[in-house]
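S., here's the first fold you wanted:
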Amino acid sequence: MKKTIITLLLFILGILSHYTLHAQQQINLQKAIDLALSNNPGITAAANKVKIADAKNMQAKSSFYPKANILSKYLYTNNMPGMYPLLGVSVPVMNSGAPTGDNITMHPMAPYMNLDRDLLTFDLNVVYPIYVGNKRKNAVESTEILHQVYEINKAETSAQLVEKVKTAFYNYLTINDVINVYEKALTQLNNHLALAKKAYEVGLRSEYDVLNFQSKIAGFESKIVEFKGKRTVVVTALKSLLNIPEDSKVTFVGTIDRFYSNIYLKKQLALSTIQSNNLKIQTLDGMKKLLNHKEKMEGAAQLPIAFAFGNYHIYHGKDFPPFDKTWRNGYAVGFGVKINLFDGNMTKGKVEEIKAQSAIINNYKEGMKLKLRFEYQKCLENITYLEAKMESENKNMALGQKAYSIAQVGYKNGVITNIELNDAQLNITKIETSIINIKKGLLIQHAILEYLNGQQQ
């Protein structure tokens, strides 16, 4: 019985262990970008704006179709006109314009307003605008441009989000690599400490050496804890960008070296290409096109409007008795023209306002181009500086590693002090950390260039 219980417990533990391993989701950079793009509320809002543009397009196209409506009323009223006889009047009988000498008495009828009756009307009306000064055409085209502008806004939101995800992801990988460098250095310091203790026991080294190594080890351990705290902050930021629960079990995977080795495979971006592909500039171009169509639509207010109409009607109860109970039906068709003669310069004022708005957009566009040029040149200068620094650090690393190897041999043989050994080791750690940060810096600069170029991946 006891064996069965133990087997069952082991089986349950195995399942739990398997679940725990699989619950820890691994996320690489591409998956992080995909999650951010699919979960971001800003992108969802931008997509809904595109739907608004499509709905406006449907509304604009509806003006090309005739409008039909039915109006029917049934009511009971007490003030429909009736007829009543007036006092008789003697009227001469005429023959070829001459009186015959005979008279007749006529009793004319007059309306009165207190006849109660029920009333029903039914009208089917159809109106179709034949000419409206190209308002409909410009309205449809403006909604199509609005769709493009909202798509560009969505792309801009995506590109900006991707740049933020890349920056946070590169920071995470950088901190990981720096922690690895410090842990490797810590291992070496512990080895040095062990050597120092042995040397101290046989009287070859002083207690100061042991205490010095212990002090350095404590400093490195403290630094590692600090970096791990920074990594936790970056993880929180990444989860926020990806819009995943803060308590979700995820591991971000990848290496700075792999991304760094790929950046120089990409084509160098020219300023003219960036200014052409930049999504903010494309948005301004789209807004200017929108204003051009709006200007044409407002200007068309002074043009005549031509329309055709038709009506079919059925009613009873509207005639004088005794015909008020008769059902009547009929139709009417026609053609109409409406001309606005003078609107107090309202149209002219609206057109001038739109022209001024268009001029402002041109100013914004020129300013945006200047800003892009500055940001582009800054990125190139940063890349040039970081590449030069990388070349220098690579040379320093070769020299530092050689110096450290010599220092290790010298320390074992009692030629140099522990301080010199520590300095040689710290120099290697400093150079390795610097190289990792340079790689991160280059990756971030290229991510900024890609964002300026409107790339969304």
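And the second, which I think is the more interesting of the pair:
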Amino acid sequence: MVIIKAKPNILESYNFFVIPSWGHLLGYPTLGQYSNHNVSKISHDLVIFFSGADCSVQTEKGTLYYLFGLGYYYAKFELQSGRYVTDNRQLTGLVLTDFVYDYLSTSKNVTLENDRDVIVSENLFKLPIDLSNKSENKRTFIQGTLMRNLFIPYKDIILEFMETLRNPQSFQLNRTEPILLSTEWDSYNQILVSSEMDYEMKTNYLNTTAGLNGITLDSKKHLERYFSHQQLQYLEKLALKLRKVYSTIDYDPMYLFSILVNATLKLRSEINSSYALKVERSNKKMPKESIFLSAEPRMNKFIDWPEKYRRKTKDELERSVIQVKSKLYQPKEVDKETIDIGDFRKEQKEFKIRTMKRPTVWAKPLPIIPTRNSLDILLVIKDIVNQDYDIRSIARALEIARDYIKSMILHSNVLWEMSRYVNFYQNVEPNKGLSSKEKLELTEQIEKWINLISKIQST
């Protein structure tokens, strides 16, 4: 491919974007893999973005659209064993080819058809962070629409994203470099990470996940094709400002619209007051929705979806799954081994119970553990136990959970029992997972803690 050196015009644009199903947008290209196991079903594959800028770039193959900011790819899926798993990837950019952008911008509207700034469609939610230029009645209507269609149905995922932003270990842009969710022709349905990413982070991040064709290198080289060094520095600084805003704002978990209200005030103090770029646009019906400011010149142009990326339905994709017995994620309950005992007159069989055998597992990063609600903390710990983490990671998760719960001055028996598990698991050899029996016992113990704390909180 001949590289066309472009001079993209980066436009600041502070919006909240949610693509409710990445697979639905792309026509379900793959179910993907997770920890070398086949995914059989996907129940959620959400993309969330707090954007700070967008731009378009003309290439030899067509137009590429870029969204820059802080993003999150969240997936909940089922492996062949029938076990559900959740996974996520942090993002700093979204790359859309012209045919994907055009498909997205012509998605069927659910409501708000007469407002070009706010989009509520089957494939996209988009609204400005700052709604101060709307009338009070319009803001009330937008708020109600978004609460019903976005903030209530996807509340838990949005809250998880916000908690991730609060975690000081997340979005370490100086260590990660750019992380792009891409539909570019040569990296279609992939996440691109930088080869310069911190080694430990890169090792963990390159693990495949559901709904994607892969996670590959090299995002930085990709961006350097089209953007100058100064532009890339500007985008990094912008992302750092966004992180400062969204990692520190207060919000009401029961009223998620408060995220946008408080972000508006914070953005005004952290970024020049000119951030709310005013573009004169009529509200008349247009051929496409105005998703990116940089796409305005192409409002009357369309690129058809290529046959190379033939679209499928979710049912088609899931029905095409071929069960591979050797790839089942859940081990069999019992494994029998025959051992010859020479001193006995008749052959003896020794049965080795798999429920007592600890499998070898690979270490993987822990999910974000909540900090404010003890029941939420224990539910996350329960998920960790059920997702086949190595025992030392489980010990670390229990230790974090214990310290959070301790700060809430809860039942001393719970803290003592958690400490007992932590001390025991910390001494287990590396890369060993819980046996089936240990997993069952720990899950039952966590259920007891949950029931106990529920009773305490209800009194």
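Why I say that: The chain has two domains: 11-309, 374-458. DSSP finds 14 helices and 14 strands in the chain.

Talk tomorrow,
H.
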